[in-house]
Structure prediction request, 223 residues.
Amino acid sequence: MLAVAIAVVSATVGSNTAVTYAAPTKGKATKVAVDTEKKNAQTEKKAEASKPVMVTVAEGDSLSSIAEKKSSTWVRLYNANESIAHPDIINPGQELRVPAADEQLTERALPQPPAPVAATPQVTTSYSAPTQTYSRPAASSAASYPVSSNAAKAYIYNRESGNNPNATNPGGCYGIGQDCNGVLRAQCGADYACQDAYFDGYAQRRYGSWEAAYAFWQANGWW
Prediction:
């Protein structure tokens, strides 16, 4: 009987020992699987974070409005996108990269405004003949432009501000035609009709017509 009891105890101990060693093996495998899943998730997050944030310019957008939506500044957007030649000029459909908040960017120089174009004095040629005096008449300015006055005005308003009376560029120019002297803001505020009348007068005084203003904008990118 003693021999049988010893054998039973030995078998029992052996069985318990086998169970004791099998359990940690299973737990270790489970821990390894969990650690692997965590590492994979962290890798995916890092890969997702490293993807550049891109935006597509919509009608009426400006660098300032896009920067405000993306919690950035127009300067960082300008520095991050070398495709932008001038911070006041972006086009619908253009793809822009939004830099990360901690990204170090190389400072880009802002374009300098072009020097004012001196008006060429109009010269009237006259000559005397034995029987008559002839003066060459000045050519009609409107006849040389392929757009109407309203079309020229609409083009300039759209290019300057997206036709937005509240538009303000980084230089402080304001309104549908971007007045940079501070007069329009004080005189009209965001009143569209008042701004329109103001820029009608400006176009006539400076260029003689909206058509001539349009031609100047086409040649210089500003007016």
